[in-house]
Amino acid sequence: MNDINGNVFNIQRYTVHDGPGIRTEIFLKGCSLKCLWCCNPESFNKNLEIGVYPDKCIGIDKCGYCLEACSFPKEKIFEINENNAVESINRELCTNCLRCAEVCPGDVIITWGEIKKVSEVIEEVSKDKIYYDESGGGITISGGELLVQWEFALELLKESKRLGINTCIETTLYAKWNIIEQLLDYSDLLITDIKHMNAKKHKEFTGVSNKLILENIIKVSKEDIPYLIRIPMVPDHVATEENMRETAKFIKEELKNMPLQIQLLPFHEYGQSKYNTLGMSYLLKNYNFPERKTQNYLIESLHTIMLDYQIPVVIGSTNKLPLSKK
C-alpha cells in the first residue's frame, strides 16, 4: 500500500444514495467547479480551513482560548460582535495555523478537513465490510471533486479492491482522460453529472466550460464500466425544457453505451449555513425559487419529456440500480 496523505472533510457511514447497497462515502476536499447551488462549500478549497459558528460562542470574556492561541493576537484577526462573541475571522490576515480551532471547547471554531493516511481511511471503511457483503454495498469516493486528489483516491480504490470491497467514484469528470482512466481500472461504478448543455451557461453556473466534461462522458460510455448520470433540478438554471431536451438528445445520440440510470435530483438549499462559516456568500440566497409543490410538478413534467427519448430516467437517487447490466 502506498500510504499517502489526503484531505478528507467527511466520512459518512451507512449511506444508501450514492451507489448500490450500504456504503461508506469518503468526501475529499477540493473542487475544480464552483457551482452556484453547491451544498458543500467547505469542499471548494483543497486545503484545511477555518469555519466559524458564532451562535455557539459564549463570549471571549468567559472563554477567550482562541485569542490566547492565536499566533498574531495584535492583528485583530477575530471579529467580535456586540455580544462579545467571535463573529468571524479576517481571512486576509489569518495565517491558517488552525490553533484557534484546536483549543475551542465549544466547536465555535472548527477545521474543515482532516489530513488522513490511506490506511486510516481504509480502517474506517473496513468496519462495515459485513454490511457491504450482505447488501452489495462498498465504498464511494466523492468530494468536492476526487480528481483534485486523484493519487489519494487511486490508492483508496486499489486497497479497497484488494480487500474485496465494491468501489464507486462520484466525479465531475473535469480532468485529463489519462488520470480518469487510471481510476476506472479500480472502479465498479461511476457517477457523474450533466449540469448544463449550453457551454456559456455552464460556465456561468459552475465556473468552467462543459467541453471537457462532455468529451469525457462520451469516453466513459465506451468503457466497460456501469455509470450513472445525474442532473440537478435547479429551477430556471438547469431544470428547463430546452436544457432537458438537449441533454436527452446528447445521451441518446452521443453515448455508445447507455447509462444505467439518468437521475433527476430535486433541488435543495441545505448547505446555506456552511457558506457563512467560511465567510462566503451563497449567491442564490435571494433568488426567488418556486414553492416545493411547483418544483415537484416541474420535475415530473421534465421527467416525462426525457422518457419520450426512451432513456432510463428516474427521479431521485434511491431507485434500485439494474447492476446486472455489467
TrEMBL record:
It is an enzyme of class 1 (oxidoreductase). Signal peptide: none annotated. One of its GO terms (molecular function) is 4 iron, 4 sulfur cluster binding. Its cofactor is [4Fe-4S] cluster. Residues 48-83, 85-115 form the 4Fe-4S ferredoxin-type domain. The keyword S-adenosyl-L-methionine applies. Pfam families: Fer4_12. This is Glycyl-radical enzyme activating protein family.
